Amino acid sequence: MSDTDHVCKRENGRQECLPHSAQCGRDNETDRMKRRSFLGAALAAAGQLACAGAARADAKPAPPNIVFVFADQWRAQATGYSGDTNAGTPNIDRLAGQSVNFTNAVSGCPVCSPYRASLLTGQYWHKHGIFLNDVPLRAESVTIADVLRGAGYDTGYIGKWHLDGRGRLSFTPPERRHGFSYWRALECTHEYNNSQYYGDEPVAKRWEGYDAIAQTAEAQRYIRERGAGKQPFALFMSWGPPHNPYETAPKEYRDRIRAEDIVLRPNVPAEHADAARKDLAGYYAHMMALDDCVGQLMDTLESSGIAENTIFVFTSDHGDMLYSQGLQKKQKPWDESIRVPFLLRYPKAMGASGRGTECMINTPDIMPTLLGLCGIAPPASVQGRDISSDLLSGREPKLDAALIACITPFGEFIRKGGGREYRGLRTRRHTYVRDLKGPWLLYDNAADPYQQHNLCGKEECGEVQDQLEGCLARMLAECGDKFEPGETYIREFGYTVDDSGTVPLHP
Q1: Cα separations in angstroms, 277 against 268, 321, 324, 448
Q2: At a CB cut-off of 8 Å and minimum separation 6, what does 386 contact?
Q3: Which member of 126, 162, 178, 430 is catalytic?
């Protein structure tokens, strides 16, 4: 039997994406509302009692802290725990052994600002309006920091912001920080060894040396200070690496890996091998530096005595093609671009032993899930799926599909270079994508993990393709995405773009 024959048949008598919306990554709406209502009432009430001091200090449950750390452009495949022999990530591997490992985590709109807006709001890209880089998140957006701050949390942000849209080196005043009170951040820079930031005053400061290391030291200080108090805290830290430029990690890390020793993924064409190895050597050097930073954060939580009741997340905003499929960077619908690492550790409520889940967690699902783990009901504006009750009970979450999208091509995915609008699904087994002209890509990722055989339009795969098309249509309808040309959304939100579809940078 050929791969094509194998991949397009029913698996154990069942297709993975059935007509019922629950099998398309959505629970039944009534059940979902009941669960959310129950969790919102019961858990939020418990959290409010804990914060209000209604019971004796030694009797009330303490709300968990949050330390949410995300890198920029770190693809899921590039970790030791996922089997990458190039990756020197012993600390992250150790974290994986203590965490829920989301092996199918997806960045549904795999580019910087859209991810960040969805992370904070729990909404899809056509809804919050951030489907381009360098545009501002609307003032009326309700973010996770707004909600946590309202529930009594201290909220902090360190590193790359990229949601103000008023110049990459500009000051972001407190009223535009969307609920974050502690601030050591900059809109955007990738000059990792000459990196500036702002605090509460419009006076630029500079991180000493390699910015990720300095930012980690600042995060450690924040954790030690807040961990000594009674108020829960939520710290979000965004590193710029391993995003290009790849060659700028500290020398001690660059010296640990040689380009000629890099083992390439099989989907890197031979003509790109030398360039891929050169870039990957720098990419992995950045990762080794960040791995040490993760270890330092874990040690600080332990030494502060708060690791047990802290939700610690390590993830990334999107991946990086790095010449897989002969392509570079992000925004593309292939796995190297859309799949990200996602480790969640919460020992007090979920134990200290690691476990894996294949559920298709997507960026909009993160905000409501974190709130649920804190006993706080998500706001009505959220579109993502709260899987906190499944995580707390040890059940496998019923998320069978994640939407992936390019609302309008821009930046490193412009039309003249093959960029296009698309909508698609990443399920536990398949990737299915259509553009405005019709079906474009279909992969069976179980039989073809490097996505080298496009099955779209093949007769023997018609049943699978039809079911995935129906599932995609239902999920788009549920989140209100009409899948129109990119220009429609650009006009709707009043953006100005250049000939490539990209927002011109402010001075």
Answers
A1: 10, 13, 12, 23
A2: 35, 36, 39, 365, 368, 369, 371, 372, 378
A3: 162
* pLDDT given at position 61: 78
- pLDDT value at position 244? 98
112 as an active site residue: the answer is yes
pLDDT, position 486: 98
First vs last Cα of the chain: how many Å apart? 59
- Percentage of the chain modeled with pLDDT above 90: 87
Q: If we measure between CA atoms, which residue out of 40, 78, 44 comes closest to residue 320?
A: 78
Give yes or no: 24 in active site.
no
Give per-residue pLDDT as tens, 108-154: 999 999 999 999 999 999 999 999 999 999 999 999 999 999 999 99
Pick the CATH number of 29-53+60-397 from 2.40.10.10, 3.40.720.10, 2.30.170.40, 3.90.180.10: 3.40.720.10
CA distance 309 to 82: 26
91-120 burial, b at 16+ Cβ within 10 Å, e below that, comes to bbbbbbebbbbbbbbbbbbbbbbbbbbbbb
Considering 112, 293, 374, 471, which one is annotated as catalytic?
A: 112
